[in-house]
Amino acid sequence: MSSPVDQRHIDRNIRIHDQVASSYEKTHDEIFNPLEQARLRAALERAKAGMRSAVGSPRALDFGCGSGNLTRHLLALGFEVVAADVSPGFLRLIEERHPAEPVTTYRMDGRSLSGLGDSSFDFVAAYSVLHHVPDYLAAVEEMGRVTRPGGIVYIDHEHSPSYWRGDPAYREFRRGAARFDWRKFLVPHNYYGKLRRLLVDPHYSNEGDIHVWPDDHIEWDEIDRRLGSAGFETLFSEDYLVFRSGYRAEVYEAYRNRCADMRVTAMRRGA
Q1: The domain that contains 178 carries what CATH number?
Q2: How many domains is the chain partitioned into structurally?
Q3: pLDDT confidence tier of residue 128, bands split at 50, 70 and 90
């Protein structure tokens, strides 16, 4: 049973993402750029290669599908896909974009995957999602529950531990890489967000992010522990420096192997 606070988070995420569904990709250059898309495809291919569950056509769950970033890659890799999200707006977008492909949609409640059976997927993936989920560790356990023996849980694009430790190399990178973006001063909600954080709620986020603060962020060790307790073993876990379109490319190339701000992990369920 979720608390009233949890439900408010869920309701707000639904409302926000319904509003931005059609424009989401235009405002997230840290995801929808060629470098990040190539890295993501390579990581998904690597994780799929470690899969030991599929008989016939493999089945994947895109947990928190959004506008279909993972769905597109999973289809290209030969999966039948269930695209799941709390936002009806995102789910309609998926249905419009993939009318003749092996994709079905599933409306999540923001708490569990109770409508999906145990051990029903070969590949369960979440990309830039867990920080939106009030009880993200329970969500991880649910991801494990619906994964078949030999199947994969893949989690990507959540801040790495080094990001929260305040790595000096990363601070140096940000100072050199980030271009001045005057467009942010033309977004009225940015001013509202700053005032709200200052006067009302220091954890307020314009996009409904929850676990993105120094005192409340994704705990990778606990994710590993919970999936490990469910019989999963780590295939790979890597930290990387995500590319943003506003970065100076030459600075990014100079630092990409010196610091990191994101993590990807793939774990396989034992027999």
Answers
A1: 3.40.50.150
A2: 1
A3: very high
Residues 6+ apart with CB under 8 A from 257: none
Structure tokens belonging to residue 145:
């529950």
**Closest Cα partner for 131 from 46, 219, 250?**
219
Asked if residue 248 lies in contact with residue 177, where contact means CB atoms within 8 angstroms, the answer is: yes
Judge whether 80 and 102 are in contact, CB under 8 Å.
yes
pLDDT tier, 208 (very low <50, low <70, confident <90, very high otherwise):
confident
User: Are the C-beta atoms of 156 and 64 separated by less than 8 Å?
Assistant: no
Range 250-254 average pLDDT: 97
pTM over 0.90: yes
Scan for tokens 């750029």, then name that residue: 33
How many Å separate Cα 220 from the centre of its chain?
Answer: 14
pLDDT of amino acid 56 = 83
* Lowest-confidence region among 12-16, 40-44, 116-120: 12-16
The amino acid that residue 56 corresponds to is G
End-to-end CA, the chain: 31
DSSP string, 141-209: HHHHHTEEEEEEEEEEEEE-HHHHHT-HHHHHHHHHHBPP-GGGGG-HHHHHHHHHHHHT-TT--TT--
pLDDT at 181: 66
Q: Is residue 73 within 8 Å of 32, Cβ to Cβ?
A: no
Strand, coil or helix: 222: helix
Q: What's the pLDDT at 1?
A: 47
Token pair for 20: 């931005």
| Residue range of the domain that includes 129 | 4-269
Q: What span, in angstroms and rounded, lies between the C-alpha atoms of 126 and 62? A: 6
Encoded tokens for 97: 């974009």
Cα gap 59→54, rounded to integer Å: 8
